[in-house]
């Protein structure tokens, strides 16, 4: 998105508000509808010049605190707030609470599934999973030692994964290519950057796969496992994205009848 788009968005929503909507007196005749820039600047605690520049699309810096105040002053909805922060290239500090709510909703849903199911966030941390998934993914979801067990850490750093996932190298190579495609627009974010750096340092195979710059879409299909107690297992995997939070992915594995 461009700075011009951000400025246009702010201006359009400023023009939709009346002074009385935000507790200001409606003084004098108005040549244009809605709030004046000076009035919005007063509500947000910024200079009218700064607001003029951002509406004109000039490259000015908008902090997360400033964007939050702008959101409140413009009476933006949750979806509009999310869009504003995305246009500004900022992470909404209120998003963490929203994420926890989404995770809880996902956990409540998949808990009723009998087949293995788990939910990944944008860094491929498992944020929710059901007992069937914990039973399948030995060394990952069955004994998670951190609040957010990561699929890539498990695949490359846990010895149990190399025995469970079959064939391991083929699946691991594709997993890295899928992750590169999936995290493209977030590649510079600290959580993604730090994860890649950690795995590249810890595992030469991951480093080699990452440096290949392979990019493939995340797709379903047959998944084979060699479970330590149940022996060979075969599933068909399907992945869905959440409509209200595109960074969340629901992964479901359904056992094949002849597995």
What does this structure look like?
Pfam families: HTH_31, MLTR_LBD. By secondary structure, this protein is α+β, with helices and mostly antiparallel strands. It has two domains: 3-88, 434 Repressor (Amino-terminal Domain) (Orthogonal Bundle), CATH 1.10.260; 99-255, Beta-Lactamase (2-Layer Sandwich). The chain is 47% helix and 14% strand. It is built from twelve helices and six strands. The chain has helices at residues 3-15, 37-44, 48-55, 64-73, 78-88, 95-110, 131-136, 151-157, 159-164, 168-182, 190-202, 204-211; strands at residues 117-120, 126-129, 165-166, 221-227, 231-241, 249-255. It has a six-stranded antiparallel β-sheet with strand order 2-1-6-5-4-3. Strand 1 and strand 2 form a beta hairpin. Helix 2 (37-44) packs across helix 3, helix 4 packs antiparallel against helix 5 (78-88) and helix 11 (190-202) crosses helix 12 (204-211). The longest helix is centred in the middle third of the chain and has 16 residues, at 95-110. The protein starts with a helix and ends with a strand. The relative contact order is 0.09. The mean pLDDT is 84.
